[in-house]
From TrEMBL:
<feature type="transmembrane region" description="Helical">
    <location>
        <begin position="54"/>
        <end position="74"/>
    </location>
</feature>
<keyword id="KW-0812">Transmembrane</keyword>
<feature type="transmembrane region" description="Helical">
    <location>
        <begin position="30"/>
        <end position="47"/>
    </location>
</feature>
<keyword id="KW-1133">Transmembrane helix</keyword>
<feature type="transmembrane region" description="Helical">
    <location>
        <begin position="7"/>
        <end position="24"/>
    </location>
</feature>
<feature type="transmembrane region" description="Helical">
    <location>
        <begin position="86"/>
        <end position="111"/>
    </location>
</feature>
<protein>
    <recommendedName>
        <fullName>DUF5518 domain-containing protein</fullName>
    </recommendedName>
</protein>
<keyword id="KW-0472">Membrane</keyword>
Length: 125
């Protein structure tokens, strides 16, 4: 139950951060990295040991949902979808590579956070 709630909270927080960075006009590369760190740290602190796979899944899902919404609800996304063909498949391929990149960054953040919190618990701090 703890992991399910953490995944849902991670996805919701990720979507809020995704929208916030999009609203601010921040470059999506930097926004994605910052969001992945925040969600990875949150999940690593909440779940603890073995949180890497949950962070990867959560970050992958909120990025996938976010980019689908961007494609469906913005004029630029509608133009890209209407263009079709090789341009669309190249764009989708680049986005999937970026989503995996963000997921790996968030998974590493969750791993580091869970290890640091376990080390502090072992020291009695």
């Amino acid at each position: 139950m703890k992991t399910r709630n953490s995944l849902l909270i991670g996805i919701v927080i990720g979507l809020v951060l995704f929208g916030f960075f999009k609203f601010l006009g921040l470059d999506q590369t930097y926004g994605g990295i910052i969001g992945a760190f925040i969600v990875g740290i949150l999940i690593g602190k909440t779940i603890g040991k073995g949180s890497e796979k949950y962070a990867f899944f959560s970050i992958f899902m909120y990025n996938l949902i976010g980019w689908i919404l961007v494609f469906l609800l913005t004029s630029d996304g509608k133009i890209a979808l209407q263009y079709g063909g090789i341009a669309l498949s190249a764009l989708v391929g680049i986005l999937l590579i970026m989503v995996f990149f963000y997921s790996i960054i968030g998974s590493f953040a969750a791993f580091a956070t869970s290890n640091l919190s376990r080390n502090k618990e072992g020291q009695g701090l």
